[in-house]
Design a protein that fits this description.
Blueprint lengths: L4 E3 L6 E3 L1 H31 L15 E5 L4 H12 L3 E6 L2 H15 L3 E5 L7 H12 L3 E6 L15 H29 L2 E6 L12 H21 L4 E6 L21 H9 L16 E2 L3 H16 L1 H9 L7 E2 L7 E2 L7 H9 L1
Parallel strand pairs: 3-4, 3-6, 4-5, 6-7, 7-8, 8-9
Antiparallel strand pairs: 1-2, 10-11
This protein binds NADP nicotinamide-adenine-dinucleotide phosphate.
NADP nicotinamide-adenine-dinucleotide phosphate (NAP) binds next to helix 2.
GO molecular function: oxidoreductase activity
InterPro entries: NAD(P)-bd_dom_sf, Sc_DH/Rdtase_CS, SDR_fam
Protein name: Very-long-chain 3-oxoacyl-CoA reductase
Length: about 350
């Protein structure tokens, strides 16, 4: 008997299985081709295609770049590299001495103009936001980097101090919303602008032990997707940066590795891939980008993986553990986190908080 036919035992007649085999083969081939096509597009964007040039946003033409939280870490590096690219800099953070020394350092290095504005986003009043808005409105802003952010150690939500939760909402969410609201009308009027919202992998999936932090970043991802579509026709780009770990004070990681770059390497990859989603291309998060290549591959892998095992994706991103913490989900029963050891990096992160 041929492989494509089968005799039904009770009825004794032959059925043709050929259409079934063809359908299964067709679906299998379609799935494989789809995955290969997505992989090809991500590799092309991440390794070959150049991003939108910063000259489109007014570099070397007197335009200003605003960076929030720019006295350390990723923000300071954005300030350096945007100064190097020929933007004047409006630097915003809470410590006037650190702001002045950052401004001086970059002015001397690249011969650009700087202006500093001091504000503590954790406690900023309506009046302080009005003052900041007035400062922002006086400048021709080409680029805004909503970088300021804070986190708290890996801990249960109920064990996270209330003031830390409030800080995360005020600094990670409210500061971005308020500063963007102040800057965007000018960009829309000038028909030119770039807004980069510094997000996190932890915003892509609900992360236990980082419930508040990961939710603030999920807000930013959604906010960016919606806003980007609103202003696209005004020639203003809004992009969410899906960042995995980077060596900074906030991450508590001091030694770089392939997956954990220095701020210099991370920011270089961001500024060279503006407008390209790279690893976020098929994540379902519109206008998000994972431009640093190991982060891009990780994002792509999680995109495929978490559709099947969302619980496991949560665990992979946080790499966290808490004896007794259990996750339900499509894995069927429960995925226990006990088996995951705290990595040295995460131990350091917790120790620093
Ligand atoms: N590092 C990572 O692994 C990682 C991963 C994913 C996403 N991110 C995101 O990247 C962004 C930057 O993080 P980072 O690692 O560069 O952090 P960082 O090294 O701690 O630097 C944070 C900057 O923000 C300023 N800042 C903090 N609280 C502030 C406040 N209340 N008001 C005004 N300024 C304030 C800090 O100023 P002071 O010097 O005065 O504290 C500093 O300049 C954050 O949005 C973070 O969520 C980081």
């Amino acid at each position: 008997m041929k492989l494509t036919t089968r005799v039904l035992p009770d009825k004794g007649h032959v059925i043709n299985l050929y259409p079934l085999y063809i359908t299964v083969l067709g679906l299998g081939a379609f799935t494989v081709l789809r995955i290969l096509h997505q992989l090809f597009c991500v590799l092309l964007q991440t390794f070959l295609l150049p991003g939108t040039s910063l000259t489109n946003f007014g570099s070397h033409e007197g335009a200003w770049a605003v960076v929030t939280g720019c006295t350390d870490g990723i923000g300071k590096e954005f300030a350096r590299q945007l100064g190097k690219a020929g933007f004047n800099l409006l630097l915003v953070a809470r410590d006037v001495e650190r702001l002045s020394s950052t401004a001086q350092e970059i002015e001397l290095m690249y011969g650009i103009k700087t202006h500093i504005h001091t504000i503590n986003f954790g406690k900023a009043s309506v009046n302080e936001y009005t003052e900041l808005t007035e400062t922002l409105e006086r400048h021709d802003i080409g680029v805004l980097v909503n970088n300021v952010g804070t986190s708290w150690r890996f801990s249960r939500f109920t064990e996270t101090p209330r003031e830390k939760i409030s800080d995360m909402i005020q600094i990670n969410v409210n500061a971005t919303v308020q500063v963007t609201h102040a800057v965007l009308p000018g960009m829309v009027k000038r028909k030119r602008g770039l807004v980069l919202n510094v997000g996190s992998f932890s915003g892509a999936f609900p992360i236990p032990m980082l419930a508040a932090y990961s939710s603030t970043k999920a807000f930013l991802a959604n906010f960016t997707s919606a806003l980007a579509e609103e202003v696209r026709s005004d020639n203003v780009m809004v992009e969410y940066l899906n960042a995995y770990y980077v060596v900074t004070k906030l991450s508590g990681i001091r030694r770089p590795s392939v997956f954990i770059p220095t701020t210099k390497i991370y920011v270089q990859s961001v500024l060279s891939k503006i407008g390209l989603p790279c690893g976020s291309a098929y994540s379902g998060r519109l206008n998000a980008s994972s431009p640093y290549w190991p982060h891009a591959l990780l994002d792509l892998m999680l995109t495929f993986f978490c559709k099947v095992y969302p619980s496991a994706a949560m665990v992979m991103i946080s790499g966290t553990t808490q004896p007794g913490l259990e996750l339900g989900g499509v894995m069927g029963g429960k995925a226990e986190l006990d088996c995951w050891c705290l990595t040295p990096e995460i131990k350091t992160h917790n120790e620093m908080q």
